[in-house]
Write a structure and sequence with these properties.
With about 300 residues, the chain is α/β, with parallel strands linked by helices. It has 2 domains: about 170 residues, Rossmann fold (3-Layer(aba) Sandwich); about 90 residues, Hypothetical Protein Yjia, Chain: A,domain 2. Helix content is about 30%, strand content about 25%. A 7-stranded parallel beta sheet has the order 3-2-4-1-5-6-7, sandwiched between helices. It has a 6-stranded antiparallel beta sheet with strand order 11-10-9-12-8-13, covered by helices on one side. The two termini are about 35 Å apart. The C terminus is likely disordered.
Length: about 300
């Protein structure tokens, strides 16, 4: 079984990469996804594309769910026998914790694909916002995709790639658009280079809010809420995702570091929900604005 861990900060393009990657690999693939929040969303996105996926929501695979990760992988191996297992940890998780689990199960080789957002990588590194946690996602990777290269100048793209190569001289670095793997990974002999390293922070601590949305939530109201989150009206929101059935049909909303995107979802959403990750979140204000039927805090 081939095993690939796909890591990257929130909004870097992990889900998009996995959707394309599964289409390009031969044999049966299973995706183990760990959404940070009690209302998982990525698993349903994969399922809508016909991708066999298993969700581990409600926490981080590096700490509270480490035992669940072990038992879930064992169950996948015994019941699904995939040719390729892909693991998508939460965007606030370090891949080192996942690699420790895989090593304990004697699962080898493991390839780590790291994805960085070219529009913000340099600034985040210079600001040292995430410290060692931020660097672990880079230095642990066998392959690093400098994604969203079409949204920055050639100079910024090249500078980002050089910075990645400085942090991890052994990585294979590609510049990508929409996290498309294309032929990038074919022909590359990646045996998984995980080795003992000093203990690094396993995840960055964010506040999380998970909200159950009413049926037929109004499209314009949800768009206003996402625009408000982008303007930090509800605290510093670094990522928000929603799958929702609106009067205009099913939609997926996505907010990442101030940028809002909404696209038509591929099938009817039977359980509309919203997951928000950030710092200093105004949870009561969000709940009142959404008029949620139920809220559970992560």
């Amino acid at each position: 079984m081939k095993t690939t861990v796909v890591c990257g900060l929130l909004g870097s393009g992990k889900t998009t990469f996995i959707r394309h990657f599964v289409e390009s690999v031969g044999g049966k693939a299973v995706v183990l996804v760990n959404d940070f929040g009690k209302a998982g969303i990525d698993g349903e996105i994969f399922s809508a594309d016909g991708i066999d996926s298993v969700e581990l929501p409600s926490g981080c695979v590096c700490c509270t769910l480490k035992f669940d990760l072990i038992t879930t992988i064992e169950k996948i191996l015994s019941t699904k026998s995939p040719a390729h297992l892909l693991i998508e940890p939460s965007g606030v998780a370090s891949p080192s914790g996942v690699l420790e689990v895989l090593d304990s199960l004697s699962i080898r080789p493991v390839t780590v694909v790291g994805i960085v957002d070219a529009t913000e990588f340099i600034q985040l590194h210079e600001a040292q916002l995430y410290g060692r946690f931020f660097e672990d996602q880079i230095i642990t990777s066998d392959v690093v995709l400098v994604n969203k290269s079409d949204l920055v100048s050639r100079e910024i793209g090249e500078e980002t790639a050089r910075l990645v190569e400085t942090l991890n001289p052994g990585a294979v670095v590609f510049r990508t658009v929409n996290a498309l793997p294309g032929d990038h990974l074919s022909g590359i002999d990646l045996r998984g280079k995980y080795r003992a390293r000093q203990k690094l922070p396993e995840h960055f601590h964010f506040d999380t809010v998970s909200l159950k949305l009413k049926d037929e939530t109004r499209y314009d109201i949800l768009r206003e809420i996402f625009d408000g989150m982008a303007k930090e009206e509800y605290g510093k929101v670094v990522r928000a995702k929603a799958l929702v059935q609106t009067e205009k049909g099913p939609f997926r909303f996505d907010l990442s570091y101030g940028r809002v995107e909404q696209v038509v979802f591929e099938k009817e959403v039977k359980y509309s929900r919203l997951v928000i990750i950030g710092e200093g979140l105004k949870k009561d204000a969000l709940t009142r604005r959404v008029s949620a039927e139920e809220m559970s805090q992560g």
